[in-house]
Structures are given as C-alpha cells and as structure tokens.
C-alpha cells in the first residue's frame, strides 16, 4: 500500500463531532480545526446547524439507532438541508436489514433521498458490524436502488463495533465505483485509516483527525 500524503488523506476525512455532550464551543473548535487541517468536511449533529465554515458540512439523521419512522428521518434530513447541510448520513433500520426486509430498507432510504435531493450527498449508515455478509450486500444494493451516493460502515455508537477492513472491502465489491464507501467507527491510527482506504474506502469518518494525520493515536469516534 502506498502511503498517502497528509493533504490527500485529509481530503478523505469527515472531521466528526457527534458526542451528545458536545457544546457549540466544541463545534466551533471542530470547524476551525477542520479548516486548518484541510479536511473534506465536518460532520456535526443536526441541532448544531447552521454553522459557518469553508469546508463542506455533513450531518446525521435517524442517529444513532436508526429506529425512527422513515417520515421522521426524511423530515430531519429536509430540515438539515434547509439549514445548510451539504451531506446527510442517515442510519438505516438495522432490524429491517437483519430480517432481510430489503424492500423496506430501500423504501426508507428513498424517503430520505426524496427529502434531500441531489446535489445533497446522501450516505447510508448500515452498521456493518451488526450484519452478516449477505445482509451487508443486501443493504448496499438497496441503497444503490434508492439513489444513495454512499454506503457507510457505522455510527461509531453500536456495541457490535465500528469499521472493519472486511466489511469495507465487501461494500466496495458490491457497489463498485458507482457509490462511495465511507469507513467510520473506531479508526484511531493513521495505519488503520490507510488500511480502510486500501480496502476501498473513499471517505473516512474521524474524530481524531489531527492526531491521525500527525501519526499518533486518537480516541473517540
């Protein structure tokens, strides 16, 4: 694997702060750090919108459980877009995926897609650590049919765990070059970040971006 330059790696990062105890001052610090590091975007909770920054703004909906009615996920996404979000990372109903109800998975993703149409970027968080391989494939296919732009491994809050190279590789094999793949959850070293990219990730969700870019070990998301 060829090592990425700092600027290259930074441009794959959604610099993330989704802790429930985060304050507006914490978010302001995140924005300034993202600008300093040159990350692709920031990812913040919808209650923190709108924000002022020179990088792209991502947020979440149905977070972190995914056990929200599709209409509520859609409304949350629409509200975030109205407040300036460029990207929305939605949590799918993992129970539907585990039950093999992929038509229902597709329907809820489509509801959010319609509420947040292009050019808004829609990422679908599938909680890959809680799914079997066939379920990962099924939800990725449903996300593509519903018009999503990315599939994403994890919220970082599920007890089953976060991103794994195997899941990223399987997601990339399923969506090809038609969708992006975002690895997030538990990526705390530069080695781990670059391994996710090598496995097929085209975006990384990191809360310890500065430490990782400097070659250290981060904590958190």
UniProtKB/TrEMBL annotation:
<comment type="similarity">
    <text>Belongs to the DeoC/FbaB aldolase family. DeoC type 1 subfamily.</text>
</comment>
<dbReference type="InterPro" id="IPR011343">
    <property type="entry name" value="DeoC"/>
</dbReference>
<dbReference type="GO" id="GO:0004139">
    <property type="term" value="F:deoxyribose-phosphate aldolase activity"/>
</dbReference>
<comment type="pathway">
    <text>Carbohydrate degradation; 2-deoxy-D-ribose 1-phosphate degradation; D-glyceraldehyde 3-phosphate and acetaldehyde from 2-deoxy-alpha-D-ribose 1-phosphate: step 2/2.</text>
</comment>
<protein>
    <recommendedName>
        <fullName>Deoxyribose-phosphate aldolase</fullName>
        <ecNumber>4.1.2.4</ecNumber>
    </recommendedName>
</protein>
<keyword id="KW-0704">Schiff base</keyword>
<feature type="active site" description="Proton donor/acceptor">
    <location>
        <position position="182"/>
    </location>
</feature>
<dbReference type="GO" id="GO:0006018">
    <property type="term" value="P:2-deoxyribose 1-phosphate catabolic process"/>
</dbReference>
<feature type="active site" description="Proton donor/acceptor">
    <location>
        <position position="89"/>
    </location>
</feature>
<dbReference type="Pfam" id="PF01791">
    <property type="entry name" value="DeoC"/>
</dbReference>
<dbReference type="GO" id="GO:0016052">
    <property type="term" value="P:carbohydrate catabolic process"/>
</dbReference>
<comment type="function">
    <text>Catalyzes a reversible aldol reaction between acetaldehyde and D-glyceraldehyde 3-phosphate to generate 2-deoxy-D-ribose 5-phosphate.</text>
</comment>
<dbReference type="InterPro" id="IPR013785">
    <property type="entry name" value="Aldolase_TIM"/>
</dbReference>
<dbReference type="GO" id="GO:0005737">
    <property type="term" value="C:cytoplasm"/>
</dbReference>
<feature type="active site" description="Schiff-base intermediate with acetaldehyde">
    <location>
        <position position="152"/>
    </location>
</feature>
<dbReference type="InterPro" id="IPR028581">
    <property type="entry name" value="DeoC_typeI"/>
</dbReference>
<keyword id="KW-0963">Cytoplasm</keyword>
<dbReference type="InterPro" id="IPR002915">
    <property type="entry name" value="DeoC/FbaB/LacD_aldolase"/>
</dbReference>
<keyword id="KW-0456">Lyase</keyword>
<dbReference type="GO" id="GO:0009264">
    <property type="term" value="P:deoxyribonucleotide catabolic process"/>
</dbReference>
């Amino acid at each position: 694997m060829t090592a990425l330059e700092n600027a290259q790696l930074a441009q794959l990062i959604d610099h993330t702060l989704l802790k429930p105890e985060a304050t507006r001052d914490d978010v302001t610090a995140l924005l300034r750090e993202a600008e300093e590091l040159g990350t692709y975007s920031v990812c913040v909770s919808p209650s923190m919108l709108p924000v002022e920054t020179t990088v792209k703004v991502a947020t979440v909906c149905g977070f972190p459980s995914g056990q929200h009615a599709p209409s509520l996920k859609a409304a949350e996404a629409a509200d975030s877009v109205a407040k300036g979000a460029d990207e929305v990372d939605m949590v799918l109903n993992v129970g539907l995926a585990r039950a093999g109800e992929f038509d229902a998975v597709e329907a809820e993703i489509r509801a959010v897609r319609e509420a947040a149409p292009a050019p808004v970027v829609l990422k679908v968080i599938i909680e890959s650590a809680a799914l079997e391989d066939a379920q990962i494939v099924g939800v990725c296919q449903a996300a593509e049919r519903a018009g999503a732009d990315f599939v994403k491994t994890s919220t970082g809050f599920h007890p089953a765990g976060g991103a794994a190279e195997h899941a990223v590789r399987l997601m990339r094999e399923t969506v090809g070059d038609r969708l992006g793949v975002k690895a997030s959850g538990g990526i705390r070293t530069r080695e781990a970040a670059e391994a996710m990219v090598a496995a097929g990730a085209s975006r990384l969700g990191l809360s310890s971006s500065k430490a990782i870019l400097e070659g250290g070990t981060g904590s958190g998301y």
